[in-house]
Amino acid sequence: MASDVASARDDDRALVLIQRYGRTATAFRALGAGLEHWFLTDARGDRGLVAYYRTPGAMVSAGEPVAAPHEAIAVAEAFVAFAASQRCRASFFATEGILASSPRFRRVMLGEQPVWNPQSWADHVAHHRSLREQLRRAKAKGVTVQRLDAAMMREPMRRARLERLIDRWFAARPMPRMGFLVTVDPFAWLSQRQSFVAMRDGVPVALLSIVPVPARAGWLFEHLLRDPDAPNGTAELLVHHAMLQLAADGVSWVTLGLAPLAGPVSGWLRTARSWSRPLFNFDGLAAFKRKLRPQGWEPIYLAYPRERSSARAMLDGLRAFAGGSLWQFGVHTLIRGPAVLLRALEWMLITWTVLLALAPTFPWFPSGAVQSAWVVFDALLLLGLRALRARTSGARARRTASRWSRALATVVSADAVLTSAQALWWNSGSNRGAPEWAVVLLACLGPWLASVVLWGASRRMNTLQSSPISDRR
Question: Which GO terms of the cellular component aspect does the record hold (predicted)?
């Protein structure tokens, strides 16, 4: 028996194992971009596969090993040994619990995944009044659903429109694109997946891409992407059509995938769920899946060797989602200009404007007129930031938000230049002590950093500026 790390992506070899043993919602993710493959082999061939993301000092598996159920633990233990030989930690993110029966592993609950039986979906809808109302709303707004085969998905014009939809879906989110288990690539492995698109006025307004869970003869609803201006009920209509189609195909098991931090997670994860709401609405995602009334919820875990700490294993998992560096991911999030940061800029600007008004003219300003001008400027800028926030909801409002955010970014960039010029011309000669220079440095850095944030917000809003669907609501 030997282990084998593919020197090149051996996707066909991995696909054979997935089709034979893939029983978890994450199994098909072994074919995802950015993952490396490790195979456990013997004289009979491949016994198992671990698809993993390599972070500094760690190898994070995308789910549990793809192997026969009675061999999954042995494959996992062999992968831990392989990682140790590479001087790396090993962990298994988003497993469905099979590794917990091994004395080598501990587990932390990450959330739950909802499951349905499409065979009972029609009856389910018949007894679900609020869901029927959502479906009615979408249909009343002219939304229709079409099932696309691989050839249709590859058509250049259709693909360009769907990529536009994906860009708008990402632009409406505070955080940048993530990888690992949540990489969005509905055009990969089209021969294996099914695609459903919601159309309005001839334009795609939502996309549902599903991938197989072969050992369960089921499907994972992997990507459900809705344009921010799509009518209410569009996502529900997509799910409804897919469920009916799968029921007609004889499918009896479907999941919408992990609802992170849902269910009875530990206290510190509940705290993280609450604190992270401005950047990722875990409760909202779980609520959407819950309102479809799943027939059951299955717990999902992070599994890791007993000699390791759960905090370190969780950190390794987060780094995998972030693409390796949490610091870089944090910086990329900040420069996107998320709404929570724009609100923070407002509060900081209020404090700064009050301090400017109360500060003595000398040695900070060349004259009282200059001081008053800065106070008035910052007060007007505050009003501009609040007006921008008011323009971030609603299709028509967002169309002016792009121009508004670009104007504010330009003004704040000019503010940064003028502030730096005053610091060099006036304050460099009038301030001598370290505390004074610290204040001047803060005054210069503030508008420069704010301009970076506002230009990032402007780029996002520019993507959302021209709505691909009509304004009829």
Answer: plasma membrane
